[in-house]
Amino acid sequence: MNRSDQPVIAVDIGGTKIISAVITGDGGMLSRVHGLTLAQEGPKKVIGRLVETVKRSIGKAGLRISMIGSICVAAAGIIDYNKGLITEAPNLPGWHNIPLRNILAVELDTPVFLLNDASAAALGEHRLGAGQGLDHLIYLTVSTGIGGGIIIKGELYNGADGCAAEIGHMILQVDGPPCKCGQRGCLEALASGTAIARMAGERLARGEQSILTGMVDSSVKSVTSALVSVAARKGDTLACGVIDAAAGYLGIGLANLVNIFNPQMIIIGGGVSRMGEMLLKPTRKAMKAHAFKLPGRTVRVVRPGLGLDAGLMGAAVYAWQKGEVTG
Amino acid sequence: MNRSDQPVIAVDIGGTKIISAVITGDGGMLSRVHGLTLAQEGPKKVIGRLVETVKRSIGKAGLRISMIGSICVAAAGIIDYNKGLITEAPNLPGWHNIPLRNILAVELDTPVFLLNDASAAALGEHRLGAGQGLDHLIYLTVSTGIGGGIIIKGELYNGADGCAAEIGHMILQVDGPPCKCGQRGCLEALASGTAIARMAGERLARGEQSILTGMVDSSVKSVTSALVSVAARKGDTLACGVIDAAAGYLGIGLANLVNIFNPQMIIIGGGVSRMGEMLLKPTRKAMKAHAFKLPGRTVRVVRPGLGLDAGLMGAAVYAWQKGEVTG
Q1: Cα dihedral sign, B12-B198-B282-B276
Q2: Which of B254, B256, B266, B297 to mutate to test the interface with A (most CBs of A within 10 A)?
């Protein structure tokens, strides 16, 4: 059956929330619901809630499951596309080689595709956002962690198994600070929201003066990148220094990408990117200082056009593409 | 005029030698000559010698210039494909934005294409060497410097301007040892032949015991990566330690590429790769220790199938491809 003219379901599953949306071929959103992930309860219960959230989005759109073309699930993790597995997922404890594609396809009786969440956002931005019509772009989501997506010759690049674009785990500082992935000195360990909070906490613990001291309730461990951002906007020296340091590392990471990919655009999304030019200006400066001149001049470093919906819209685009190929 | 069925000329210009070969559409080499670069004499004289070397290769093949389809020049440098410029070339002093494509096209009255030398080698290995039939592979040449070439979806990837794949200048160690490019801690500054010689020299200068002391004539500055390789084969502790250190950094560089590209194969060519398994075994081990499991299992790290001719054969392949497109 060719279901390619039917609405699709785009799902974004993160460590905190599951979002499910029913989206039509012209990009219209018929419904959008969310549920809690409660990741600590393990894969079986989380998958149950995922199925329930999907069904709820179908109901809210006034549709039945048989009217849905396909489902694309965007997840933060190392996905084996060929086998339909989530092989590792740092934000989902206990998820190792979970055959999510087949489980959902049986539960929902609909074709299911899996996609890395930052790759989904790259695709969304390329088709509907800031990168429309470009040949080569890189998308980075900078939030708790750092994820990546790559568009090459106008198409999503997934690599041999489907797990390419793990840009957050590019090692920039051998023997640098530990990363959640088990390595040291990854871009994520140096420039993510977690890294910003850690650097601020370390400087507070050393007794440096900052308005952050009055903003965190009890311990310096409760400092977050959002609080650092607020303090920096008020001109706090420590907070500004931490954001400049993170931007310096982010810029070196971008320089590596610029030298390797010579892309037309790098899009910086994710929660931390909402700091805007306070983060992006020193990031661009560090990038240009560390990249070769020609590719450094070519690349534009910008914020997303679709905001935080890039991943969801990209998952829908992927479902349409795959539906047309397999339909 | 369609010249695509005519022989092409492949040129490889390095800091030391210029090689020119006349190659037929079935890969047969009708002639191969070389001349000295004498790079210190500057672009004008080097280009004169390049033209003379090309003409000599045509004469040796018993042909005339009008019988040549096109010429592809592979050079170590940052090439602007759109404008036909060599924008920067670390081994060719004084080469800044040299319009080599147009100069040669006028001098030789033949279509000319420029290509980065490691990209040429990637193409050669993909079409005629170790990577035949693969979708995604990375080529690294490890010699005095480190260059890179990228094959994606079976085609050479050049980026927006044509200067992608500068993998040797991926920064792995912020504030690490200085690199010829002006940055610090590039892969090239940590794992090239130059880096191996530097590390060995530093350890000798600190008074460490090694058979290298008897192998270098006067100063520790005359130690080379080739001498370190010879000493390591004899079991010298210092030499083995230096090669293991370089392999450790090379492996981290490969892990970054594996996490970003999820390629099927990484081919390690260049003079230093002739150390063989003594270098590649610890490199693979470090790569697997620093990459995600799935892409780390997929990738094969191998030596080139075409040896040191990969670049020359790749330049010929590029000339045929471009001749067919533009012919």
Answers
A1: positive
A2: B256
